Amino acid sequence: MKRCCLIISVAMLLLPVRAFGYTWGFDPRLSSSINWDDNIDGDPNGEEISDTFIRVSPTFSLTGIGKTSSLSLGLSTAGEAYFENEENNEFFKDLTASLIYNQSMTNNLDFRFGGRFVFSRDAEDTTETITVEGEEGIPISREITGREDRYRVSLDPSITYRFTPRLSSTLRGGYDTTRYSGQRDPDLSESETYSAGVRTDYAFTRTFSGGLGVEYSDTDFKDENDGEVYTGEVFLGYVYTRNVSFSLSGGASRSRTENEESSTDYIGSAGTELRYENVSARINVSRSVSGAGGSSGDIEERDTVSASISFPFLERGSFSVSGSLRQSKSKDGDEDRINSRIAINSSYPVLEKLSLFFSASHSEQEDKFPVKEFTRINRVSVGFELSLPGYKESLKDKGAPGQS
Hints:
The chain is mostly beta strands. It is 4% helix and 68% strand. It is built from 2 helices and 20 strands. It has helices at 2-13, 395-398; strands spanning 23-37, 51-65, 69-76, 79-82, 94-104, 109-133, 139-162, 167-180, 191-203, 208-221, 227-241, 244-257, 262-276, 279-290, 299-313, 317-330, 337-351, 354-367, 373-387, 391-392. A hairpin with a 6-residue loop joins strand 16 and strand 17 (337-351). The model is unreliable at 11-19, 126-133, 140-145 and 399-404 (pLDDT under 50).
């Protein structure tokens, strides 16, 4: 089955790519912010370390648009400089490169390919146990702590075919791998995942639609118990009015490891979206139940509620508020946990190519076993985003369509 997933992905990549006659645009941007965080390491109450730091993030995007296809390339990174805890200073902290290619093969057939590479410097704490010679030649064990870089690559090709204006199907393949720079810590497991799936959507009426999706994935862990997962989901959507819509989904996944351990997880969610003029609000609730040894570890039940609202701010600006609450319960009570978060975000364009932004968030985590333990994090950020001089090719530069 894993070979089948790989064959599907490679076959999609070999489809014809028509990248000629593109209209190109290059858009570089620079954002910078000053941030205050009262718990930079996410430690429990009473052990917090607060600090102020500056974050700088340049991004570059190259976009090409043709008659029947488009290509988008992106590159971004970030650096952070702390006022007090200088050991946390990082340059090129997160480097992300992305590629998205869309191609209309025919009036009914579309091809899409997405690729992503993420490099995270010092992403994971590591502990390596070594044996050294002690007194009188007796070997002793010592632990060496450090941090390791993480690399992740993901590929996501897909083909969509529209049988009728109401009926369409999407076939997708996938590949995802995670690597570490040193791989000295046995708790850090490198992995490769191959996946393949198909989803069919059908519009029963102008306001009511539904879909069915199935997926298979196979994950190989280095020095770990490999596993495969079979997933099936059903989707329903209903547009009550132009400003009110509802969604409902439910599904199950069956996981199996090479040690013949297996479990079944169930998940369901419901959501609604409300719009009034330029104001939009979303509410979503979900519930999952996992069997013993399921994909969620020992957690048996997980309930999540999330909501958000966004609206204009001083005509040209934007303002949004979001919040979420998640409660996890385990069979033995040893992993009971409650997570909550609330955040506000606002941005305002002061000039044609300069915008100011502000954000603030408060999050809490309560662990109930073996003793009650609280973790709180507050963060406030103020900064700007600047559009740097770029390039945008017009049709006049290229001539009439078809003449390039």
